[in-house]
């Protein structure tokens, strides 16, 4: 027994010694490898586009609901082309400033008689958001100028602007620190984008291949708050995530919509 134990120790030490002599991947090399992976993935089929296409079929169906989405918005969403470029904004029928997520949720509940609650319903909503956003592909983001906003829109926008600047969480981070002050640098393998230069809001909702699932801008913002160690994370459909989106879409104004995007 003792000899077998010693043999195992020796083999382990030798293996560790051999592995330690292998060239380690530097952070720059790892980041380059990730960029190459993303490039290869973008050259192939976009899983997000497949999910959006499936949601498009549901858009035209009245199965399980009081009426289909197409009953109001035209077959295949013909009446929604360009709508995504103006969001978030105020909607009179729900008396709220809504982003894409909240607008779909309210439509489902108010006009289709659906209960949007739980992970399954959220997943379905995200896929529908991918489809609706894709109807504006090739068009430029064109959010309403601040001067033309109504009082409710200005209040949400102002909140989003404050939150963009506000440092929070145990790491004392703000949105601006990553996407303005330190833009172009990297946190681990994640490159930090300048929203004004990259106009990156143009490809949300997106398929996150690192998570193997679709995310909307709400999910991305909530994910950032998690990384900031901010507790509790702002809930879906809240004024926090909608306000931040409103401000971020203004930073990305002019960006050509390419949804759903493919991101890490």
Plain-language structure description:
By secondary structure, the chain is mainly alpha-helical. It has two domains: 47-134, Cytochrome Bc1 Complex, Chain D, domain 2, CATH 1.10.760; 146-263, Cytochrome Bc1 Complex, Chain D, domain 2 (Orthogonal Bundle), CATH 1.10.760.10. 50% of the residues lie in helices and 7% in strands. It is built from eleven helices and seven strands. It has helices spanning 2-20, 27-43, 47-59, 70-73, 100-111, 119-134, 151-165, 175-181, 195-198, 217-227, 239-251; strands spanning 89-91, 96-98, 186-187, 190-191, 206-208, 213-215, 261-263. β5 and β6 form a beta hairpin. α3 (47-59) packs across α6. The protein is globular, with a radius of gyration of 22 Å.
Query: Counting H and I runs of at least 4 residues, what is the number of helices?
Result: 11
Rg is: 22 Å
> How does the overall form come out from the CA principal axes?
globular
CATH hierarchy, class of the largest domain: Mainly Alpha
Helix content estimate: 40-55%
How is this structure best summarized?
50% of the residues lie in helices and 7% in strands.
Write the layout of secondary structure elements.
Elements lengths: L1 H19 L6 H17 L3 H13 L10 H4 L15 E3 L4 E3 L1 H12 L7 H16 L16 H15 L9 H7 L4 E2 L2 E2 L3 H4 L7 E3 L4 E3 L1 H11 L11 H13 L9 E3 L1
Parallel strand pairs: 5-7
Antiparallel strand pairs: 1-2, 3-4, 5-6
């Amino acid at each position: 027994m003792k000899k077998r134990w010693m043999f195992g120790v020796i083999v382990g030490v030798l293996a560790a010694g051999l592995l330690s002599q292998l060239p380690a991947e530097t952070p720059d090399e790892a980041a380059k490898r990730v960029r190459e992976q993303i490039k290869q993935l973008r050259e192939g089929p976009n899983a997000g586009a497949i999910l959006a296409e499936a949601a498009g079929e549901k858009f035209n169906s009245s199965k399980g609901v009081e009426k289909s989405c197409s009953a109001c918005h035209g077959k295949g969403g013909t009446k929604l082309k360009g709508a995504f470029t103006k969001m978030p904004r105020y909607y009179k029928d729900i008396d709220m400033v809504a982003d894409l997520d909240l607008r779909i949720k309210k439509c489902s509940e108010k006009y289709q008689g659906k209960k949007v609650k739980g992970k399954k319903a959220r997943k379905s909503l995200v896929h529908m958001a991918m489809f609706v956003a894709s109807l504006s592909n090739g068009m430029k983001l064109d959010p309403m100028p601040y001067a033309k906003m109504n009082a409710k829109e200005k209040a949400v926008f102002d909140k989003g602007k404050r939150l963009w600047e506000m440092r929070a969480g145990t790491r004392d981070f703000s949105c601006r620190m990553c996407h303005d002050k330190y833009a172009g640098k990297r946190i681990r393998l994640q490159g930090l984008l300048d929203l004004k230069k990259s106009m990156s809001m143009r490809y949300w909702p997106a398929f996150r291949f690192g998570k193997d699932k679709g995310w909307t801008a709400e999910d991305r913002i909530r994910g950032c708050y998690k990384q900031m160690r901010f507790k509790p994370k702002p809930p879906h459909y809240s004024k926090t995530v909608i306000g931040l989106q409103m401000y971020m879409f203004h930073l990305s104004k002019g960006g050509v919509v390419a949804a759903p995007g493919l991101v890490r």
